[in-house]
Amino acid sequence: MSVPLTLLGLLEREPSHGYDLKRDYDALFGRGKPLPYGQVYATLGRLARDGKVVAGEAEPGDGPERKRYVITEAGVTEFEHWLAEPVAPEPTLQSVLFTKVVLALLLGRDAEEYLDTQRAAHLRRMRELTELRRTGPLVDALLADHGLFHLEADLRWIDLTTARLDALAAEVRA
């Protein structure tokens, strides 16, 4: 996730204080990984340095003084360009799952045991995401669906690879 571009998108909606940006980011995108305050303000500082946002004068508040950040035309342009670009299709042709299987085979270790352990971990995570999809708000349900589809593809790959382990072992060791 691109934090600077996400903050630009939130600022395009409306000028905001850093505190409000963090709150909105965490509510919409944090999902178990909230954005640290230090990262928010460091990112806003870089965006201001690069001319993508401007910070208003400090305003008194309930706590320390706050600055309201406003997106600039350069920030809007960069955000629109990013938004229009498709995300690179994942996964690449090299994955950690594949690497572990090949190394296990190369080293004479039990690749099938690793695949079984990985399958169990995927199934546990799928149960968690299924519960989230069933009980959570729509945003969580859509994110859970995305994760579930990726996990299902991994499980299909695990099953196919398990069925082909002997042939893969012969090819890897040749």
Average pLDDT works out at: 89
Strand order of the largest sheet: 1-3-2
| SS element count, helices | 8
How is the biggest beta sheet arranged? 3 strands, antiparallel
Spans of at least 5 consecutive residues with low confidence: none
Range of helix content: 55-70%
Per the principal axes of the C-alpha atoms, what is the gross shape?
elongated
Output the helix-strand order. HEHHEEHHHHH
Cα-atom Rg, whole angstroms?
22 Å
Class by helix and strand content? mainly alpha
Our measurement of the CA-to-CA distance between the termini, rounded to an integer number of angstroms, reads 40 Å
Let me know the number of strands. Answer: 3
Strand % is 5-15%
InterPro entries: Tscrpt_reg_PadR_N, WH-like_DNA-bd_sf, WH_DNA-bd_sf
Domain Transcription regulator PadR N-terminal: 7-80
Protein name: PadR family transcriptional regulator
Organism: Kitasatospora misakiensis
Task: Describe this entry's structure for a reader.
By secondary structure, the protein is mainly α. The chain is 69% helix and 9% strand. It is built from 8 helices and 3 strands, in the order H-E-H-H-E-E-H-H-H-H-H. The chain has helices at 3-13, 18-30, 37-49, 73-84, 96-106, 111-135, 138-163, 165-173; strands spanning 16-17, 53-59, 66-71. It has a 3-stranded antiparallel beta sheet. A hairpin with a 6-residue loop joins strand 2 (53-59) and strand 3 (66-71). It comes from Kitasatospora misakiensis. InterPro entries: Tscrpt_reg_PadR_N, WH-like_DNA-bd_sf, WH_DNA-bd_sf. Pfam families: PadR (PF03551).
